[in-house]
Specification:
Length: about 190
């Protein structure tokens, strides 16, 4: 017999929650398709989980190296386990990362380079996030059947062409701090000054 689990997550505006928040069965975070979303809409819990998981993988790689695994194989294992785990669903949660979260992830990548588990040309976390964002945005723009395509704003006709643009879509207003975390708004404004 299967039971339906129902979780309610209360998202508070910036600042502290009300004095006595109900915490009967509330955990304060929710795992959605492997991405942890907390009640403050930050990626801190997800980054902590990622670092814990990647640290275990780095220990396993240490054991493999002591058993004689070649360096090229360690680089392949690192890319298949650690790098892809960081890149998984990055466009969904990278906008909620603080500078401290990105620094923690960069620190883990630098440590991996220093220990020889990954190649020296492994890009930084900001580059990984930017590449993942650009690839997804390009797929959404070019495929009218993509599930995110209806959320894109309409195209605008500009009679002049001063410089090449990454898109011809109408820019929506950025009204709140959360707009910086929104994937579509973040990418619409990415190359506009």
């Amino acid at each position: 017999m299967k039971f339906l689990s129902l979780f309610i997550i209360i998202i508070y505006p910036k600042g502290s929650p009300p004095e006595k928040a109900e915490e009967s069965n509330s955990r304060g975070c929710l795992r959605i398709l492997g991405v942890i979303v907390n009640d403050k809409l930050t990626a801190a819990d997800h980054v902590t989980m990622l670092l814990s998981s990647c640290s275990r993988m780095l220990y396993a790689m240490h054991v493999l190296r002591t058993r004689g695994t070649p360096t090229t194989s360690l680089h392949d294992i690192f890319h298949a386990t650690v790098a892809l785990r960081i890149e998984y669903a990055a466009p969904a949660w990278s906008g909620m990362c603080s500078a401290a979260d990105r620094a923690r992830l960069d620190s883990m990548l630098r440590r991996s380079k220093r220990l020889g588990y990954c190649s020296d040309d492994q890009p930084a976390v900001a580059d990984l996030f930017s590449t993942a964002d650009n690839e997804l945005f390009h797929r959404v723009k070019s495929n009218s059947n993509h599930v995110l395509h209806p959320y894109l704003p309409g195209n605008t006709d500009i009679p002049y062409q001063l410089r090449t643009r990454s898109h011809r879509m109408t820019l929506s207003n950025k009204t709140k701090h959360l707009n910086d975390a929104d994937f579509i708004i973040r990418l619409l404004y990415k190359h506009f000054y």
